Prior knowledge:
CATH architecture: 3-Layer(aba) Sandwich
Mean pLDDT: 92
Distance between the termini: 11 Å
Order of helices and strands: EHEHEHEHEH
Helix content: 40-55%
Number of domains: 1
Low-confidence stretches: none
Radius of gyration: 12 Å
CATH superfamily: Response regulator
CATH class: Alpha Beta
Structural class: alpha/beta
Shape: globular
Largest sheet: 5 strands, parallel
Amino acid sequence: MKKILIVDDAAFMRMRCNRLLTEKGYNVVEAANGLEALQKFKQVHPDAVLLDITMPEMDGIETLKKLKELDSNICVAMVTAMGQQSMVIEALKLGAKDFVVKPFDADRVLAAVQRIVGN
Length: 119
């Protein structure tokens, strides 16, 4: 079973993604910000990360950089609000594999996760 780390400061978004991915057979771990994400990443070594761009403590771009330092092969899909195209482009240049725009469509989230974990 593939492990997915969901990183988003909005509890509702984490809960929604968690339910969606759990129903599809993924093992899900949640983090509310970038700092917590780095701790959870070290603990559980997920197969992939769904990473929000805009968060307190440490934004998604900085978190992506630090995750790549820990594991250069980690598969990350960015979660972004409309109007953050420049940040999405930066994240893709830094190694993110895909992105999902909020408010997201469940099928799009599943497609992104399947794409980055190879299912």
